[in-house]
From TrEMBL:
Keywords per UniProt: Signal
Entry superkingdom: Bacteria
CDD domains: LPMO_AA10
Alphabetical list of Pfam families matching this protein: LPMO_10
Name of the protein in question: Chitin-binding protein
Residue ranges of domain Chitin-binding type-4 in the record: 28-194
InterPro entries: Cellulose/chitin-bd_N, GlcNAc_Chitin_IntDeg, Ig_E-set
Amino acid sequence: MRKKISAAIIGLGIAATSLFATGSASSHGYTDTPTSRQVYCANGTVKDCGEIQWEPQSVEGSKGFPARGPADGTICAGGNSRFAELDDPRGGQWPSTSVSSGQSYTFRWRLTARHATTDFRYYLTRPGYDPSRPLTRSDLDLQPFLTVPYGGRVPDATVSHQGTLPSGRSGKQLVLAVWTIADTGNAFYACSDVQF
């Protein structure tokens, strides 16, 4: 009997390890500076986040933004319905990072699985953006204010990019960061609310 119990425990341990390994194989990356919505969900600052609280690194969707990629209203979740809570504007009440118009800023990604990379791109909402509505392309300046080409190289586990925030912004705005993968059809998306 004791051997059967031991065998069952070992079997469960192997199954759990395999399941964990499979789950982490689909893990990839997120921005933590400025703090992204998925980080606020993962660290418990924002409640009622659904599955994203356990998978802040998994906001993966089709690449090619803005011409392709997630549909309007689903951009912050990368078009992934499992993480739809990220697209909920919560009445414009997402926590925000304080920034200044025209400020030099260091943007940072945490990568839990590294991939050959085309580039990292950063977009900012236009003046007049309404943070109480889901994000659409018409809310964004579709020309990124910062593009960091990688030419297929694999980035480090922590990646920082120095850039300058556009001038002429005030109030609550949103930074959309897009990490485009070179050898798949996907990209990773992260929305960070900022207060100018």
